[in-house]
Amino acid sequence: MNGRLLLSKGHTIEANHIRIFKIWGISEVNLVGVNHYDDTSDPSVDPVMIEQTEKSVKALFCHADLEHPAIKEIYRIAVQFRCKHNITVKDDNLTVDNRLIPQQEREKDFLKKLQKKNIILPEIPAVAFELKKVIENPRSSAEHIAQVVSKSPSLTAMLLKIVNSSFYGLPSKISTVSHAVSLIGTQEISVLALGISVLSIFKNIPKETIDMHSFLRHSLVCGLLSRVFAAHKNIPQTEQLFVSGLLHDLGRLILYIYFPDESRHVLARSRNRKKLLYKEEKDYLGCDHAQLGMQLMRQWKLPLILENNVLYHHRPSEAQQSVPATIVHLADIVVNSLGISSSGEKIIPPLDVNAWENLEMSPSSFETIIGQATHQFHSLASILNA
Ligand SMILES: [Fe+2]
Ligand SMILES: [Fe+2]
Prior knowledge:
This protein is mostly helical.
């Protein structure tokens, strides 16, 4: 520390060393050759089940580097989480019907195809449009936001549910939006309400196309994880990160709604070849869901930071604002690993190592962060049925 040798390699750390570390502000050390499972595995979980889960989960990590400390820790937590909640990996090979889309119709530039087909992307909901104006105006008052939000009873109900859940952990019950705003802040509540209202457009997608409930769960957990990661990094705009996570796979909904045949095909190809879904989208359609999502956000003129986080959530090191994009990226990897839900992807997306290094986060914090976010999810899950 600061050029001082406190303890040389190969020593056993004892209580007095820990005391010295604390004095020097060292919060953690890397241990070599320690098997995590010996120390932290839950003794109540059947070892046979652990073994089976490990085997099936390992297969899902086929595109990730299990030797990387961050991935190794996510994998460890994922195995425990899946054992504890009895989450099994379903083998759902889908049939690829090559006759479904003739070769010549497989448009390489999908964004052009979107224009050619004259597809009108959904409009931003009126309430979200008004909220956007509120966000842009630094002088917006609590009353002003309450007025906008209360135009939509479902939005009001959802917002109050979030505010009263363990998401904020407020000591007393909040029953009005203006009270919520005065406690949590104008900008924060507006961004939160914006995210919820945007996602509500896609509520009525037919079941055959996608399990919308699973999609929403994926989005919500990713949002919660992004928010807790951001808080851990002392990033002040945690609501923006929550909304980025909530909307990160929005582009997939465009695919599922407007191009159901192509979507099914791309899904089947990725499943059967064990290829990452977003790569398959790119190869087969010429663009991936992150680009489509960004397109929609641009059309809606949503805050630029949301565009940044959505477009780069699979390659955050290329983002202008890499830290928030990396947080959503990491949250997405975690939510896929836990197996609670899916937006279509089955395989765990690989970690952008450069972005990870830039984030300067320790994998040892994952367990607490994931614990917090999943706890919040359980207290919030009912909003998905609203
Ligand atoms: Fe994604
Ligand atoms: Fe995702």
